[in-house]
Specification:
This protein is an alpha+beta fold and 282 residues long. It folds into two domains: 35-160, no CATH class; 174-281, 2-Layer Sandwich (Beta-Lactamase). The protein contains eleven helices and five strands, in the order H-H-H-H-H-H-H-E-E-H-H-H-E-E-E-H. It has a five-stranded antiparallel β-sheet with strand order 2-1-5-4-3. Helix 2 (38-55) runs antiparallel to helix 5 (86-95), helix 5 runs antiparallel to helix 6 (98-119) and helix 5 (86-95) packs parallel to helix 7 (125-172). The chain is rod-shaped, with a radius of gyration of 37 Å. 19% of the residues are buried. The model has no long low-confidence stretch (mean pLDDT 83).
């Protein structure tokens, strides 16, 4: 009895497997049609259907005997009618990419063939169809590549901006003063400690904010060397008696401009101690 129940269960599983295969296929198709870009697929199909209907509208009028709709435009040169198919081809390239543009171009050619082979009274219908397919395919390809390049550039820009924001967040929490200066000597960024010591100067020239100069001092300024790849380290004493240990290195900003990233470490107490020790030993 147990063997019979096992055999019955195995047969049920086998039948279930046979039934499930087409069910899984239908479910996968429905899942594709329910995706976010399914409406784009429907739009593409609608464009192709409208173009095909318009392309063969003259033949449909003859077949149905609609004399009121027998306009000469529907019986003119087919090259003009084929131009409508640029819409689904370019749309496919823009929304779905290169493969979709190629597929829709092939589908368009297959749509043209019956009229070119059996209906068209104009000369060289096959040649005209092939030329249109080449031109339309190239346009679809260019549209797809341009869209892909634009999306790639947008992703890279967003990535650069996010990385820059993350780095600026780290710089803002540093104990040392941090300054980013562009090649035009204008300050692009100051962290809170830098603002505390020198005041807000973002957008102004570094020599105006830090040293109160009217023009760059080329004797002490390291900016030209740093933006050319050098890393500079020095000590600088300001007129008010403060002394800073300065470290400058190249930094590429989000707009791909080579700037100078400078850290200012206040070593005034240490310098005072060193001066007092020198006075004592002297």
């Amino acid at each position: 009895m147990s063997q019979q129940s096992k055999a019955l269960a195995n047969s049920n599983w086998a039948r279930k497997g046979k039934v499930d295969k087409p069910t899984v296929g239908r479910q996968s198709i429905l899942a594709i049609l329910r995706r976010r870009n399914a409406y784009s697929f429907y739009t593409l199909f609608l464009l192709w259907g409208c173009c095909t209907l318009f392309y063969y509208f003259g033949e449909l009028v003859d077949f149905a005997g609609w004399e009121a709709l027998r306009w000469n435009f529907f019986y003119g040169v087919h090259d003009i009618h084929r131009l409508l198919f640029l819409a689904p081809i370019i749309y496919a390239g823009y929304v779905f990419g290169v493969k979709a543009a190629v597929i829709i171009t092939i589908v368009a050619v297959m749509t043209f063939l019956p009229r070119a082979l059996f209906i068209s009274p104009f000369p060289d219908p096959i040649l005209r169809t092939v030329l249109f397919a080449i031109i339309a395919g190239v346009m679809g390809y260019l549209t797809a590549t341009t869209r892909r390049e634009s999306e790639r550039r947008s992703r890279l820009e967003a990535l650069l901006i996010s990385e820059r924001d993350a780095m600026l967040g780290i710089l803002e929490r540093m104990e040392e003063g941090v300054l980013i200066t562009g090649p035009d000597y204008r300050i692009r960024f100051m962290n809170p400690n830098m603002i505390r010591d020198f005041g807000e100067g973002t957008g102004s020239h570094c020599y105006e904010c830090l040293c109160r100069f009217d023009e760059p001092c080329h004797q002490i300024c390291k900016l030209p060397k740093v933006i050319n790849g050098a890393i500079e380290r020095w000590e600088y004493s300001f007129p008010d008696g403060r002394t800073y240990e300065v470290l400058a290195s190249p930094y590429i900003d989000s707009d791909e401009t080579v700037c100078q990233l400078t850290t200012f470490r206040n070593i005034t107490p240490r310098k005072r101690v060193e001066t007092e020790l020198l006075n004592l030993t002297g």
